[in-house]
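Internal QA ticket QA-208
Title: Verify multi-chain structure generation after dependency bump
Assignee: T.L.

Test input:
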Amino acid sequence: MAMTGVLRPGHCQLRVLDLEESVKFYSNVMGLKETGRDASGRVYFKTSHERDHHSVILREADTAGMDFYGFKVLNKATLDKLERDLLEYGVATERLPAGDLLETGERVRFVAPTKHVFELYYEKTEVGDGLGYVNPGVLVPDQKGIAPIRLDHWQIHGKDIDGSRELFTKVLGFSLVERIKGEDGETDMAIWLTCSAKAHDIAFVRDERDNTVHHLSFLLESWEHVLRAADTMSANNVFIDIGPLRHGITRGTTIYAFDPSGNRFETFCGGYDFYPDMQPYTWTWDEVGTAIFYHTRALNERFLTVVT
Amino acid sequence: MAMTGVLRPGHCQLRVLDLEESVKFYSNVMGLKETGRDASGRVYFKTSHERDHHSVILREADTAGMDFYGFKVLNKATLDKLERDLLEYGVATERLPAGDLLETGERVRFVAPTKHVFELYYEKTEVGDGLGYVNPGVLVPDQKGIAPIRLDHWQIHGKDIDGSRELFTKVLGFSLVERIKGEDGETDMAIWLTCSAKAHDIAFVRDERDNTVHHLSFLLESWEHVLRAADTMSANNVFIDIGPLRHGITRGTTIYAFDPSGNRFETFCGGYDFYPDMQPYTWTWDEVGTAIFYHTRALNERFLTVVT
Amino acid sequence: MAMTGVLRPGHCQLRVLDLEESVKFYSNVMGLKETGRDASGRVYFKTSHERDHHSVILREADTAGMDFYGFKVLNKATLDKLERDLLEYGVATERLPAGDLLETGERVRFVAPTKHVFELYYEKTEVGDGLGYVNPGVLVPDQKGIAPIRLDHWQIHGKDIDGSRELFTKVLGFSLVERIKGEDGETDMAIWLTCSAKAHDIAFVRDERDNTVHHLSFLLESWEHVLRAADTMSANNVFIDIGPLRHGITRGTTIYAFDPSGNRFETFCGGYDFYPDMQPYTWTWDEVGTAIFYHTRALNERFLTVVT
Amino acid sequence: MAMTGVLRPGHCQLRVLDLEESVKFYSNVMGLKETGRDASGRVYFKTSHERDHHSVILREADTAGMDFYGFKVLNKATLDKLERDLLEYGVATERLPAGDLLETGERVRFVAPTKHVFELYYEKTEVGDGLGYVNPGVLVPDQKGIAPIRLDHWQIHGKDIDGSRELFTKVLGFSLVERIKGEDGETDMAIWLTCSAKAHDIAFVRDERDNTVHHLSFLLESWEHVLRAADTMSANNVFIDIGPLRHGITRGTTIYAFDPSGNRFETFCGGYDFYPDMQPYTWTWDEVGTAIFYHTRALNERFLTVVT
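Actual output:
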C-alpha cells in the first residue's frame, strides 16, 4: 500500500476565550458543523466535507492557543509501531483511552522538542459528509459561510525545530519539503513537512516562544473560494491579517485572519503535490519576503510576531 | 515514510500514425517540451512542470494505441521487492536495461490480466522545471498551448479487470477508490485505483477488446484552465469528444479530445483527495450516466466505443 | 448622458404548466426571490441582485412559452418618444395602465414582425438588493441555488427577423452586434442586438414558428459559477440541454437547460463589451457550429428544434 | 441609439523617465503591443484585445505623470456638439489637428477644474485585434505577460473635484456612480463617474496636488488573471503597492503596482454594471477603509499619498 503510516492532521483542540461567541464564529462564519459536546464542555466540529466525527475541538480557557495536535494513522498496528518507535527514539508516550475524546479511539500522546503536545490515533467514528458511498453525487450538502474542505495543517513555533524535524522525519515518516535558511545560510528558520502528497502537513518556525501556534489552516476549493472567504470575513467583521495572496513556499493562495479569541487561522487553496523523489526547496534569508508573501515580497510585523 | 512503493504514473509510449504531425501537436497545442529522440526514432516529451526527463514517448506506427505504461517507484529496493512479489504472485517479469529508454534506469516489465504491458522503474534523469530548488518562485517558465501540469493517469480497457484489480491491489499496493457495478449489482464494470492520495492513478474498464486504451490524462491547474484548454483545442481544430464537464466519479472537471492519430486524451483538474480510511464509492448501473458525465447524466456512443 | 433610450430587458411573462412546481423550481433551484402574486394568480420573481420589483413573472397555462418581453427605458419622456416613433414607423401600440403588473408603471405594448409581444416601461418599484446605497458592502444577501445576477436577454424565433431587426435598430436604437449568414451568404439566419454595452440584449433566429422562444437567459458571476450551476442542476434533476461550453458568438460561457414546463433557459457569464465603433461580427454558414458551440463545433438537433 | 456621446477612455499620454526601460516593461511585463513611434519620439501601444491603433502613449520626460487623458466619442457630430457645449459652459477648448497623434483624427482639448488636460476625439485607425470580423473565433492572438483587455479608467487627483464632477456630469453626460463623503458628511472626498455601463470610467479624488494621477487602470479577464498578473509582476520584480484584493467601491478585484518610473497602475476585473436607474452609492468617512480595501478595511499610507 502506497499511503501508510501517519495519514494526515486529524484534529486539534483550540483554546477560546468565550465559548459561545466562538461556537457562533466557527459555525456561522467558518461554516463548520457542530457534532457534539462532551462532559467537560468541549465543543466538537467538522467541516461539511470531512467524514470523521470532528477535526476542531473548542475548549474555553483564559488564554488563546492550541492544547494539542492529533494525527490520524492508518491502523492499530501503525499506532503500536509508532509508539514503540517513539519510545525507542527516547520520546515518552502516554496512552489516552478510547472515549476520552468523543467518538475517538485510544490516542498515543507525546511532547515534541518544540514542546507542542502531539497525539496519534487511528479510530474515529465516521459520520460522513452527507453524500454516502453509493451514487454520491458531487455537491456536499449543508455548506454555509467559508465552508472549508478540511482542517489541513498547522504552523507552530518553538525553539528546537531541528529536534522536532528529526523526530518527525526519522520516527514519524515525514518528509522535508521546504525550508527557509537563516542569515548564516545554515540554520533552518522554518521548515515545511509532509506525511502525504501535500506540500505540507505541518510547519515549524524557530521562535523563542515554545509551544505556540501561528495558525491552523483550512483548505478551500479554489482561488475564487479564497476571494469569497475574504468577502465573507469582511462582511462578518473578521480581522484579516493579510491576503488574499500567494505564497512562494508551497505556491498556495491564501488569507490569514483571526478568530474572536485572537487565534490566527488560514483559509487557502492550491500548492503543488509532493512526491518523495523531489528535493526540498530552500529559500535564502534575503528572499524570505518572497518565500512567504510572493506578491509584495515583504513581511508584515504582525504576521511575524503574533502567535497564541 | 508515508509515501512509499509505487509513486505515480511516470511515462507511457504512445503510437502515432504520423510522427512529425504528432510532434507538432504535442509541442504546440498540448504544450509539452521535447526532451530527446532516440536511435529508434522515438520522441520524448515532458510537461513544463514535470522534473523528470520525460513522461510521454511517441512512436510512429501503423496503428494508434499505447505500447506500455510505466510507474515510477520509490527506489531500487522497492523495484526489487515488487519484482519478487510479482513473481511470487505468478506474474512473469522482464528486466529492461538502463538506457533502453533515454535517461531512464532499468525497468521491470510485466503483462496484466487485461493484457496491458506495464513497467516499473525508479531512476530517470531529473532535468527540472526551470525553477530549480533554491528560491524557486512560482511561475514555471516556457508554458505554451494547453500546458498541463503532469501526465496524470490512464483509463484502459480489457476483459479481466478483476484480475488486474487483484494484481494492482494485492501486489502493487493500489487502493480501490471508485467502481461502477453492472446490471447484476455484482460485476465491476469499471474500477478506479490509486497508489497515492489522488482519486485515481489508473482506471480499468471491462471490455472485450484487451490491451486497449480509452485515454491518457493530463492534469491542469484549474477549471479556468479547462476552459482555456477547450478554447485552445478548438482554435487548433482538435476534435473534442465531450466537455467541459464534471465527472460524478472523482468529481474532476474535464475535456476529452483526440490527438491527430485518434488517441483520446483528457485534460482535467480537480477531484477529491484519497485517504485509505475512505470506503470505495460504488455507482450502480442505472446511475452510470451520472457517474461519468455528471451534468448531462447520459453517455455518448463515441465515448463508450472508441478505444485505441 | 451616454446611456439613454432603451436600457435593458426588464421583465418577461413565462407560461408554465404547473404553477407551484415552477415556483419551487425558480425559487429553490434557480434561486430567484418571490416578490408578489397578483389577483390573476401570476407569481413575480427577481434575482437577489436585481433592485426592481420583478424580472420574471410566471403564469400558469396549458402550453409553455413566453407571453411578452418587457424593456425598461430611461424615463417617461423616452417612453413617450419611443411610442411616437413606433407609431410613425407604422407599428401599432397599446398603453397598459400602471398597476396592471404589480409595482409597475404604464407600459407601451407592440407586436414585432416576428409576432412577439414587446412592451416598454420606465417605472417599477425599487425593492433593492438588500445592500442599500450607503456603505453597501459587496455580498448580496440571501443567495441560494444558482443565484443569477440578472435576467439578461432572450433568444426568440420567428419568420421575419429582418423586419424585427429593422424595427429594433431603426426605432428602438439597438445595434447589430453579431449575425449568422445563411448558405446564400446573404440572408441573416440569426442576429444578436444590443441596446447597451452588452454583447447582446436580444437575439432573433429565423424560424417558421413565429412568436416562439428559444431561451431566456440569466447572467452568472463567473465561469466557476457556471460549473456550480451545472452541478446544482444535476443535483436537482434538471434536464441539461448542453454545456458547460463557450459560444463563438459573444464569447460567453454557458449552460442550457429546461425548466419543469420545458422552457429552455440559459445560465451564462462573460462575453466582450460592445461599443458602437465596433463592426458587427459575421459568421458564415459553414462555421455555424463553431459560432454556437465553440468547443465541439457541432450543433445538436434538440438545440436547433425545441422552442416553446 | 442607446450608447451615444462619450464612449470610453481612449488613450492617455504617460511620462516615463527612461523610455526604453519603459517600452520593455509595457511590452514584456504588461504585454501591450507597440504600434508605432512618432517624430517626437513618443511610443504608442495597444492591448492585444483593443482594436484602435493605441491606448497608451509613452513620452520620455524628467518627471513621471500623465500629460493628458483622451475619451473617444461617437462621431464627428458628437465631437462638434460637445465642443459647443463646453464653450457654452465656459470651458475653453483647443482643436488639435488630425495626425498630431499617430493614426488619430482631430481632438478637442480642454482643462478641467482639477487642472487635468482632457481631450475628445472620434477617429482612430482600427488596426484590429487579430481576429477580424468574419468567423472570429474567441482567442485573441499574441498575448503575453499580464495581457489586459483594455485601458479601462483613471483615478486622478486635484482640488476642485466638485467642479470637475459638474463638468463631466452636466456637459459630458457622465453619471455619478459612487462617492466617499468626508467627515462632515457633506463634502465629496472622491467620486466615481461613468459614461457607459461600467461602474467607472474615471474617478476624481480631492487632493491639494492639482493635475496629478493616482493610477491608470487595465481590465483583466477574471480573478484568476488577477492572480496571474500578481505572479507575473513579482516574477519581474515589479513593485506591488497592494493586492490582490477586492474594492468595496465598484466591487472590482484588483492589484496596484508601479511601473519603472513610479507611475501607479491597476490591473483589475469585475465590478457591477451601471444603469442610470441606479442611485449613487455613498460611503461615509468612517467606512473609507472598507470602501477602498474591502478585505483589510484599512488604507495604507503609500496608497493615500503617492501620486505622479
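Spot checks passed. Chain C touches chain D through 50 residues (CB under 8 Å).
Status: verified.
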